[in-house]
Queue: 2 jobs
Job 1
Amino acid sequence: MSERIRIAVDAMSGDLGPRVAISAAQKFTAKFPDVEIVLFGNEQQLITYSSLKKLSRQRISISNATDVVAMDEDPLHALRHKKNSSMWLAIDSLNKDLADACVSAGNTGALLAMGKYLLKTFPGVERPAICKAMPVEQGQTYLLDLGANTNCAPEHLHQFSLMGKILAASVSAEPRVGLLNIGTEATKGTDVIKSTQDLLQQDSRINYVGYVEANKIFTGEVDVIVCDGFHGNIALKTCEGTARFIAKKIQAAFKRNWFTRVGGAIVWPLLKQLRSELDPSMYNGASFLGLQKVLVKSHGNANKKAFMQALIVAREQVIQNIPARIQRELSNQTISFQQ
Amino acid sequence: MSERIRIAVDAMSGDLGPRVAISAAQKFTAKFPDVEIVLFGNEQQLITYSSLKKLSRQRISISNATDVVAMDEDPLHALRHKKNSSMWLAIDSLNKDLADACVSAGNTGALLAMGKYLLKTFPGVERPAICKAMPVEQGQTYLLDLGANTNCAPEHLHQFSLMGKILAASVSAEPRVGLLNIGTEATKGTDVIKSTQDLLQQDSRINYVGYVEANKIFTGEVDVIVCDGFHGNIALKTCEGTARFIAKKIQAAFKRNWFTRVGGAIVWPLLKQLRSELDPSMYNGASFLGLQKVLVKSHGNANKKAFMQALIVAREQVIQNIPARIQRELSNQTISFQQ
């Protein structure tokens, strides 16, 4: 690591293209004097956009990439054929010690495949787990896995607990770890979940608090919630769907008639602040835990603010030295990974 | 069925006790002249409360039950030992043709066990599926199963699709049925989900629209979303958790200082209406589909309005003759249920 924290940005991926990544990089470098950004993508396009928008490129460099991974591209196809893509080159720059972390808003499957192939997982980790801070009343609750591992054995879920604990250590001295289930009684859940509970109860490194139901994701009662990628993905998408539904309802309510419009205008500053507090972009930036380097996924349709948040997550993980701490934790693991 | 629609109410269960059930019954009978209620529970307590509150008992009768199923009671224990409970007697009254439907806010597991034991499922249905209308932008989306069937074979999910379709037929002529998955690509999902998709695509009775992600629960793009009870339960609880989190944030925002309090007072009528539109009680009332009679579960902490909504759901299903229509649909089923 150089003195500055260097972040490689896949500037071409994501639904909104390079302008989001460039603007976010500019805002990010302006805010944090200790960071440097390398934008990977079509050089001409990136330079033209920066010039058009008169963006400062202080501590921002551009590295040309002739190809792009499409958002709907088959991950295996991307892995085999997109070695000149902005995604590949951005990730690979970590191996060449050109950057300390990589951020991309691209195709999750491709990012997972390339991340695993290029950055490698730590011994014993079959696939990285996707982990994200969820909106909670106080503090942060980390939920993992969010979709990388559809089928998990108890040993995987145990491993997720250890990795999630490391990430949560920055917000809580002794992170409370819960296991997602459909009830808190011992009889509830699948065999995999019951066996996982046994493993977690036996592991003195984990402050295991028991089964938690999905509504506890948002109360801040636990710091880490562990589940397989299928369950995590359902929870994440349901949360997004519910929040969007409520936001639309609120918007429609204030537009109903002239009276509600006047009311809306009066409380506008309040609504604006509320919206910013509830803004999903505040929670952008999912980490691929178990990889040997820091790789952060920004939401595909992230705006500038959201992309900036993903950059902040990446910077924080470099500062916290998360991969090395995960490696240390997992090397203490005595459980064999046989399936 | 008598001329009136008779609903048996387990008045003693639920977190808030009999007062909610009584008040809801009173409001319900006042609103619908075609209904009759039988309250099952401690006769003295029910009479005393009605008298104290000066509630009209027109078309409301009371049937004494000496026992109660506790909210945290083991369902099998309840099934074996609580034959004098308000829950048991209320459900059993359907077999004695004393009522056309039963509503309870009690222990879901006990309700499921007693419902299955007393009312029986239709041939081919191993366990009923719990189904509920979710809040959507327009119309209604029915989600099932919400927790009765943790492990499902493709044949079960196929069956849920047929049952859900019947329920949704009241809101859509040709209900669009989606299968909950973590992506829409054919490669996504577990083997069970992929095999279910094959079954649904082959069944001409079902207007199958493909895989849907959990955020689609709230958009109204599909009328029925089918999943196993584990996934449905996660979606339901995540939705509840998110909505509660946002509601708390809004409340806190308007209480921040005198300025926001004044703003809140000005838009109070609007907030009140918004709250009523988003009120979870509007969506109360989960059905146990696949049982031979109408059994509706009210949320454990339902208030009067929410309990009333569960009564409305029960009334509607009697009018629509849902069990008979499910029976007809399932008897046309050519798929064998071998596992």
Job 2
Amino acid sequence: MLVVMKTDATDAQIARVIEIIKAMGFEGRPMPGAQRTTVGLVGNDGRVDGSQIESLDGVAEIIHVSRPYKQVSREWRPENTLVEIGPGVVFGGTDIPIIAGPCSVENEKQIVLAAQQVKEAGANALRGGAFKPRSSPYSFQGLGKKGLELLALARKETGLPIVTEALDEEGAHLVAEYADCIQIGARNMQNYALLKTIGKLGRPVLLKRGMAATIVDLLMSAEYLLAEGNMQVILCERGIRSFDPSTRNLFDLTAIPLVQKLSHLPMVADPSHGTGLRDKVIPMGRAAIAAGADGLLVEMHPNPEQAMSDGGQSLYPDQLARLVREARTIATAIGRSISPSSGTATAANG
Amino acid sequence: MLVVMKTDATDAQIARVIEIIKAMGFEGRPMPGAQRTTVGLVGNDGRVDGSQIESLDGVAEIIHVSRPYKQVSREWRPENTLVEIGPGVVFGGTDIPIIAGPCSVENEKQIVLAAQQVKEAGANALRGGAFKPRSSPYSFQGLGKKGLELLALARKETGLPIVTEALDEEGAHLVAEYADCIQIGARNMQNYALLKTIGKLGRPVLLKRGMAATIVDLLMSAEYLLAEGNMQVILCERGIRSFDPSTRNLFDLTAIPLVQKLSHLPMVADPSHGTGLRDKVIPMGRAAIAAGADGLLVEMHPNPEQAMSDGGQSLYPDQLARLVREARTIATAIGRSISPSSGTATAANG
Amino acid sequence: MLVVMKTDATDAQIARVIEIIKAMGFEGRPMPGAQRTTVGLVGNDGRVDGSQIESLDGVAEIIHVSRPYKQVSREWRPENTLVEIGPGVVFGGTDIPIIAGPCSVENEKQIVLAAQQVKEAGANALRGGAFKPRSSPYSFQGLGKKGLELLALARKETGLPIVTEALDEEGAHLVAEYADCIQIGARNMQNYALLKTIGKLGRPVLLKRGMAATIVDLLMSAEYLLAEGNMQVILCERGIRSFDPSTRNLFDLTAIPLVQKLSHLPMVADPSHGTGLRDKVIPMGRAAIAAGADGLLVEMHPNPEQAMSDGGQSLYPDQLARLVREARTIATAIGRSISPSSGTATAANG
Amino acid sequence: MLVVMKTDATDAQIARVIEIIKAMGFEGRPMPGAQRTTVGLVGNDGRVDGSQIESLDGVAEIIHVSRPYKQVSREWRPENTLVEIGPGVVFGGTDIPIIAGPCSVENEKQIVLAAQQVKEAGANALRGGAFKPRSSPYSFQGLGKKGLELLALARKETGLPIVTEALDEEGAHLVAEYADCIQIGARNMQNYALLKTIGKLGRPVLLKRGMAATIVDLLMSAEYLLAEGNMQVILCERGIRSFDPSTRNLFDLTAIPLVQKLSHLPMVADPSHGTGLRDKVIPMGRAAIAAGADGLLVEMHPNPEQAMSDGGQSLYPDQLARLVREARTIATAIGRSISPSSGTATAANG
């Protein structure tokens, strides 16, 4: 339930609404907007009788949010939420940042070189897995903490903010220490324990859509993060399961405008996992921008043939540069722009 | 099996290859290319021993086409096939035509007005159903032959070529008399009897992907048309079945670059059926162009609220104009262009 | 709309209701039941004001059928429809017939031997394709009319009724001459022209569920047949498209009780196409019976390794005998029975 | 890689093989069989040169397991693995146990009554969630540790072993203290951190198939448990995502014989989640038994209308009794039997 205050409502009137909501056994969360303040009622409001609140001074109207998600919805917050993961790297505004890097952090040379290539190509943040969810227990599982340290080193060298995945509670705390944005992978989209843990860490989060998740499922999982008080959430389309083996996943680009209409959170796209095919990453990355994506997440490796994982879908460095150029032209065509190159001059010189 | 001739092969050498293939019980079809001629062997070549042909004069090499489709493949014909459905309305080249119009032809006033609006918006061809495949036998099934006559009238008024669907053998012959391009709908993609009938009619065909069809299934169905001697085939992505009820279908834009790599046939996209939601047609139409689509197929109605079918996914005339404008900018960004407005000035004045 | 008459309504009262419905521009179809007669209104009844009819003598109540299908629904006809395709071979009752035979009719020896093996195994009807819908235009397309003649010969030899597929209008008329039940394949489930043609032929029909068809889609397609006046329709689950390549299709057995609740038509299952794997046909055939299937459709070939199509999913003759035995035990366990062996002794001797 | 020893291989020869494998940097795990011992090589064996081992005394042959899973495979262990979760409640043998109970543990009265009804109906184990994975953060999340205590109480009252879900590391340790079998839910099937944790706990595990998981994905996730040394793993089909909204999930019963062929682990079925519809649970439970399921997992609630979760798919107590009766008849028909009623008389009297 949302309590929309009048434009001239006083602070005392707002406080009174929150007080009454508390007395009813719920939490009232004030959300100041450009024109007016709205107070959200957190908790299952099926039992709430809104009439008691509607009659309070300063209240304009009561909106019952009928959808199963609440804080992620546009009704709850009409303006786009901006999520900043590094200086100038902001998702949800006019600028469109591009996150790129290898599937896994493999060693110092590889990740530092990758970071430099990402930066040179004009992308804005570095991705790279330290903890890898692998379908086989016998596959390379990532370098763990050592991988995080190498990512931090790559950031120091280039100034690029870092996005990396956490798989469990202990790992999430570690990732939060090192990374600028914590990724929750597709396989963990409905790992609610992990969502609750990460929701409390106060770091920006990139939440990937699960392989069998509807748009509503994705928004419900994001709601777990927001319910813990973390609004800094980026959503990500990365392909869903389909009957056609032509591609690793079925890249559902319509999810972009769908999510953007239903939610205030930024929605990015991952054409690497979305297609699983290197030569489809560029056209589908362009298509994602044209569909309105608020960012791209792309796999690039200095040497894809020797990658320890996902080599077949990783771009070569010069292909990433081409994708950034083409994305820039497409963005301009729809009145947006790819974020300017990231990283401090100092770092670049250092 | 493909017999690639040397660049300096003589006509006599080519004729000899065809002769030998015929003696083996197959048909040899010569395909002159820019650099060299290739001779395709039509028929099931599982039993063919290529060594006999390989040793003939003028033969450069033998390529065994392992894929289940043959004449639709890039190996069979490396260059894009251009399909012209009206003066200057060509699919498969640099220019990207846009086909638009109502789901159904309803009456003279509606279809003529729609055609004028399509033309004014800058689109290049008129769509409209005279024979409608409806899931209910009690729903409006289209005006039939009367609808075709009205489409012809709309063409006369505007000069726009006409694309309309055929559902059965009798209807296909009628449609071939009136229309510039015969559409085969998603539900009939594997109606092989209809494919054979339409393949013989010698008209350009627009073949829509079935709701459960893989890319290979689509190409196999196109093979039926080519096997009847008709190369004028346009393929169309229009959304497939998925588990998410958010959209009517799941619009699989990766199908565009996939088909274009595997086949020489032009591949267009239908964002109206692909999403089923009017407000998603513009962003997904843009995305299709960015992904490399060779054309768009879009539903537009002069008065969507009063449409007899598919009103909810039909654009308003001014939305179509906006889509054409935005598609134009996106096309430019990737070095292509939306086809210039179609229709003769005379017709427009008439 | 359904007009339920009182139990003591007179013929004159019923005739009056039909007359009024006709005057309203629709057709009224009387359906005598065990207790009372119901009159169905055929046509789109969105505009009909039921009050005029409700006040007529003998009318008990008006039921508005809200579902998109009508004549196929249990509301329209509460009792199971029994479909008899040969003497004693009845679908929809307590007995459960088994239809078996090769994918394609290949030659006289093969189909007659197959029919004898089907009969010896204890199955009740013979299947075999004369017109084959093949995904490749270069694959064996069936023997056509010759195949129908061979099926008729096999029937003469064994007494088994024949089920075979029709692909187009011309073929449907031919099939109707020779076969006891016309099959409409999965790829043609939404070929509405074919449905209308076959609906008029007055023969029992076996309609297979399309690969991307929901239960409602299947019922809507059956409605096309019933709307042409043919009530002799058997529905068939044969697997749908899924993301798991382990099986050719995903066999959806829940469709059986779902359809049986919504419709009065018999619902059978095809574990051969449903799984695509010979060694899964027996367990899944048993499972279909346990789920309540009104019949089985199974591929069996005298010599699966040499089959011209679908050899990999065809049972060996002794496997069919085992399936019939095990199906019999399962049927008994749920209070039903497999139909007794079909075919007259005379025929067998003849 | 599997090292198959000769039938007369001595213990010393086996020990030597293990020693050599260890020297190569892997673990050799001896698996005594009825006829002969096999030694499995644990670890990524891509680099291993088998010839060194092949030449050792007592070695019959080397089998390279090409499938991505290993210890779960039938090649690794030809005999069925038996998983006993309570006295006489064994999965994987001829007897088929039935696990039943409410979705959530709600309070003492509810769970004790449910347990008594489960026992009276003839089922063999009690299910009930203490930790609930809910798509909404505002929904009832289970009673937690209190729920586990109530389950233990219900066990004390009835003697039924307990199956309940764990969602995270901390919860898994708690569940291991109280429950006889730890369930890993569909949403956590690829939560590899949880799989590793639970694999180490030494308790029987019931692993449910994820909504978008292929059969191979399911086996790979089970491999995580076995790789931690836990062989006591039961797999469970519970429905996957599909395009048809008629049912909550698509119940894939072919998964049962598929898994049983590929793996030695028992495979059970959950018709409650598999269909999501109370009136489909009995026919589909029967079908699962007929397909060869090694057990059933069914939701039953003393009072489904008042259930705090999943009431719509929960059986009434008398429906469970009917399901057990019908399952018994089906099991007999295929030469198996439903496990005899569980629970000690003492417990029942106590």
